[in-house]
From TrEMBL:
PANTHER family: ALDEHYDE OXIDASE 1-RELATED, XANTHINE DEHYDROGENASE. The keyword Hydrolase does not apply. Keywords: Molybdenum, Oxidoreductase. InterPro entries: Ald_Oxase/Xan_DH_a/b, Ald_Oxase/Xan_DH_a/b_sf, Ald_Oxase/xanthine_DH-like, AldOxase/xan_DH_MoCoBD1, AldOxase/xan_DH_MoCoBD2, AldOxase/xan_DH_Mopterin-bd_sf. Residues 1-21 are annotated as: Disordered. It comes from Phyllobacterium phragmitis. Residues 1-12 have a biased composition (Basic and acidic residues). It comes from the Bacteria. This is Xanthine dehydrogenase family protein molybdopterin-binding subunit. Residues 32-142 form the Aldehyde oxidase/xanthine dehydrogenase a/b hammerhead domain. The keyword Oxidoreductase applies.
Length: 763
């Protein structure tokens, strides 16, 4: 096959186009120290800010004595709730904006660890020492420590999360077989290796922020609005990010404090969140609980699902961790009822953590389905196939693509599921109980818009420029592959520049949408750049193709030639020289006509208001997965080890299978941590997260992780994205914890309904 034929089939001959297994281009920089992270920028005249956290969880600050701190060596500034920083309230994620003054420090205390002051000094050590000298007096009130605190109550119903069809309560009463359980997940945290923080620097009325960001444009907007600046006056720079998992998608109070301090001092300010503060400066996953009742006929056909969920939120903000997010999507059921409640407690407002909603939701429904399988005496895979949803049960729309049967079949086959003996405690290896469990998962396809600039230089090198980001998921690499393929150049001729809000617009790297958004934009811009190159080559008086009589040209492997192969074949660099051109730039966006104006663009790049829901349109679009897990439980000690995982996924077309496999495995690894280790422990007396460090808040490490096999059963989904891919980044974690809990039940006969599954729950 010739290069051209390969291109026409949409494959890269060297594995570097779309679908190729190219290694991460940023990988070497990240592991050799070549990547400069936000907190590593050494600006001249830099000063250091340190936060002073509250020691109570509820009440108010009555007095702050800053005299000793101000007199301490090197101290330049101490800010307290008494300081009006002159900031305006910024818009929320969706672009809604309230009037008023924004005060990042307030005397009312809503949670333990809330910042009550900030100290800025010449050095970090001086700022840290002075922060300990700030004396805060409080009037303490009774705190509500968490979801389980008896004072927390039942919370408030979230109206728009109520989902009903048929008559679930009546069908449940009438059903031959019923199971009912309450499932709980604790507070969980992102634990990014790179902690949060920023460096803020002013030059006149222009503000530059170096801050790890999942959304440079959205965060730049917040800074501009706080300080009343035109949007263009803020540049937020974030080329490398050491993990985000949902925690780096919005500008936060500490960013406002650092930027306001820098403005007052006329010097750049660095504010680094300490590891303990990563548990309070922004929220992790909210604790959840959900009651699920399933009713089925004796042959295992679901008749009713009744779901009652709740999550904790803070006293001052709303975070909905929708435990009913996956429940109505997974199975065909004629009667369904789901309600969700929000319970305010004294915590920092929780936030997005890999697969928000879907993740705890799957723990509930997929544990309950396993309980139903045992109650019926039906194999759990068979039960899932028996209740297969041929269309979206909630919206009634057809699936765009749903290879979930295929995923169950491929996973079961690769795992050897047919060799499972169904009885609990029936498989053992000496002193170890062996259990096999299965669960499924899903994550929606969210569509949004993007913009990319393609620049072709005099040396023939191609630049792809976008304000989108790469926090490790592979954006640099897949965009290089996309541009290489669309333009017809080798991938190493392409350089991708990301992570700067002054670059072309992009959606948030959240909701597993960025790859679909940005491959679409880059494909469009690179295809247009190719057309422009060809037009110049055919029409420019200095072009060697001018008199060739061809009406089009081919571009492949960086060479431009007549498609008939009978004329000259020259490199892009050579053509640029002959044309006397230094640079060709082509910018394209994927906005529909009605939005392709200044207002639409600003909305698209800086708010989430134009994101399209998975059922917006004729189809219901989601990624799907199945996890097959083997656990080994020590019969005496109750210790659980995951010894084998096989997971099969439908995420549509994969732009880079190597990176996708890594994303899936990353999600599964996080899911193993969630199932067995992770739990934010709150002291009920002080409502304080007590294991706020990497020694006590346990995440999975290499020794906890077995071989993981991942299988793709997806087919290109033309409705989901321009190139046919669906979201990948989050779906991998969904369903892992219930698959493990189900395997633990199979091994031990003990059903653990509250995560994590620690040994005391098994003995
Ligand atoms: N990809 C692909 N083919 C597809 C879809 C995706 O090859 N059809 C690959 C690409 O390498 C792409 C990556 O998967 O860069 C993720 O794409 P996508 O699913 O669109 O997700 P986003 O780019 O929007 O990334 C955000 C997503 C989310 S929401 C969380 S949370 C998360 C995740 O990515 N946080 C991560 N993966 C992470 N990976 C790392 N290393 N660090 C994080 O903080
Ligand atoms: Mo992911 S939690 O949507 O950043």
């Amino acid at each position: 096959m010739t290069v051209l034929e390969t291109r026409q089939r949409g494959e890269a001959s060297d594995g570097s186009g779309i679908g190729g297994r190219h290694s991460r281009i940023d990988g070497r920089l990240k592991i050799t120290g070549g990547a400069t992270y936000a907190l590593e920028h050494r600006l001249e005249n830099l000063t250091y800010a340190v936060l002073v956290p509250s020691t109570i969880a509820a009440g108010r600050v009555t007095e702050i004595d800053t005299a000793a701190a101000k007199a301490a060596p090197g101290v330049l500034l101490v800010l307290t709730p008494d300081d009006d920083l002159g900031l305006a309230i910024a818009s929320d994620w969706f672009g809604n904006r309230a009037e008023g003054n924004y005060r990042p420090l307030v005397p009312e205390i809503a949670f333990n660890g809330q910042a009550v002051a900030v100290v800025v000094a010449e050095t970090l050590e001086q700022a840290t020492a002075a922060a300990s000298l700030v004396k805060v007096s409080y009037e303490e009130a009774q705190a509500i420590a968490g979801l389980d605190d008896p004072r927390a109550g039942d919370g408030n119903l979230v109206d728009n999360l109520t989902v009903t069809w048929g008559d679930a309560e009546a069908a449940l009463v009438a059903a031959a077989i019923k199971v009912e359980g309450e499932y709980r997940t604790p507070r969980e945290y992102h634990v990014t290796i790179e902690p949060h923080g920023l460096t803020a620097a002013w030059e006149g009325d222009r503000l530059t922020i170096f801050e790890p960001s999942q959304w440079t444009h959205g965060m730049a907007r917040s800074y501009a609005e706080w300080f009343g600046l035109p949007y263009e006056n803020v540049t937020l720079i974030s080329p490398f990010i050491g993990g985000g998992f949902g925690s780096k998608a919005s500008a936060s109070f500490y960013g406002a404090l650092a930027a306001a301090s820098a403005k007052r001092l006329g010097r750049p300010v660095k504010l680094a969140i300490t590891r303990p503060q990563t548990f309070t400066a922004y929220g992790g996953r909210a604790a959840t609980r959900q009651k699920i009742a399933l009713g089925a006929s004796e042959d295992g056909v679901l008749q009713a699902i009744v779901h009652r969920g709740a999550n904790e939120t803070s006293m001052v903000g709303t975070w909905v961790e929708n435990t009913g997010a996956a429940t109505p999507l997974l199975y065909a059921v004629p009667n369904f009822s789901s309600e969700n409640r929000l319970v305010p407690v004294n915590t920092v407002t929780p936030g997005a953590l890999r697969a928000p909603g879907k993740n705890p939701s799957a723990f509930g429904i997929e544990s309950a389905m396993d309980e139903l399988a045992y109650a019926l005496g039906i194999d759990p895979v068979e039960l899932r196939l028996k209740n297969y949803a041929e269309k979206d049960p909630q919206s009634g729309k057809p699936w765009s693509t749903r290879q979930l049967r295929e995923a169950l079949a491929a996973g079961a086959e690769a795992f050897g599921w047919s060799r499972r003996s169904p009885e609990p405690r029936s498989m053992r290896d000496g002193h170890t109980l062996v259990g096999w469990g299965v669960a499924i998962g899903t994550f929606p396809v969210i569509r949004a818009y993007g913009e990319a600039l393609i620049a072709i230089g005099r040396d023939g090198r191609v630049e792809v420029i976008s304000g989108a980001i790469d926090m490790g998921q592979g954006t640099y690499t897949i965009l290089a592959q996309t541009a290489a393929e669309a333009l017809g150049v080798p991938v190493d001729q392409v350089e991708v520049r990301l992570g700067d809000s002054s670059m072309p617009g992009a959606a948030v790297a959240g909701g597993s949408m960025l790859a679909g958004v940005m491959t679409g934009a880059v494909h469009k811009a690179a295809s247009a750049a190719r057309e422009e190159l060809i037009a110049l080559a055919l029409n420019d008086p200095n072009s060697p193709f001018r008199d060739s009589g061809a009406n089009t040209l081919s571009v492949a492997e960086g060479l431009i030639a007549s498609p008939r192969g009978d004329g000259p074949a020259i490199s892009i660099a050579e053509l640029m020289v002959q044309l006397g051109r230094d640079r060709i730039e082509v910018k394209r966006d994927t906005l529909p006509g009605a939005l392709a104006n200044d207002e639409g663009r600003l909305k698209a790049w800086t708010t989430m208001s134009l994101m399209r829901a998975p059922t917006d349109g004729d189809y219901s679009m989601h990624s799907w997965c199945t996890h097959f897990v083997e656990v080994r439980v020590d019969e005496d000690f109750g210790t659980v080890r995951v010894s084998r995982v096989v997971s099969a996924f439908d995420c549509g077309r994969l732009y880079n299978p190597k990176l996708v496999e890594s994303q899936w495995k990353g999600g599964i690894i996080m899911g193993i941590g969630q199932a067995l280790l992770e739990e934010g422990l709150v002291d009920p007396r002080r409502a304080r997260v007590i294991n706020n460090n990497l020694g006590d808040y346990l995440v999975a490490t290499n020794a906890d992780i077995p071989d993981i096999e991942v299988i793709s059963v997806g087919v290109p989904d033309p409705h989901a994205s321009v190139l046919g891919g669906k979201g990948v980044g989050e779906v991998g974690i969904v369903g892992v914890a219930p698959a493990i809990a189900n395997a633990v039940f199979h091994a031990t006969g003990k059903r653990v309904r509250d995560l994590p599954i620690t040994l005391e729950k098994l003995i």
